[in-house]
Amino acid sequence: MNSPKKNQKNLDLQYYEIVRNTFKPTITVVEDIDSTPIGSYWGEIKVSIHKALGCIATITNGGVRDLAEVEKMGFGYYASCVLVSHGYVHIIDYNCQVKVGGLLIKPGDLICADMHGVILIPLSIASKLAQICQKIQYSEKPVLEKCRSYFTQGTISINEIKKVLDEMKKRKPKIVK
Known about the structure:
By secondary structure, this protein is of the alpha/beta class. It has helices at residues 11-20, 44-52, 67-73, 129-148, 158-171; strands at 26-30, 55-60, 63-64, 76-78, 81-82, 98-100, 103-105, 110-114, 117-121.
């Protein structure tokens, strides 16, 4: 971990300009090139700047900090660890391909991230994604409604489970790539 070189000191502002001009909402993906993360780029200050630029989350193989403050801001973290310090963290490149958590991510990729992980969504299906999700929810509805009706009253019969699973299968959309 070294302090930034002279030519790296202005990269932050250039990078912020890219984030500001990117389609919203933006998720920033940052690859930590240290073999083991030892200083966090992400904390209350960087998150505040990114939120003001229209960014809603970060995905990094590095560390994050200031969890309580960042949670209050509604900013999403997907990171490899929590760190206590920032150190000499600095940008060496931006708007480029990175590898984080085994995923090769390029600028403009469509990402879905939540507490369960991160996936890339092919741009070829992006326009159909909302409709597909609605159809999947519709197909799962009979199982969820029927089973939840038993949460406070006895147990469901195996025959009823079979019926709602069959109904779900009938409703399940055919997804063609």
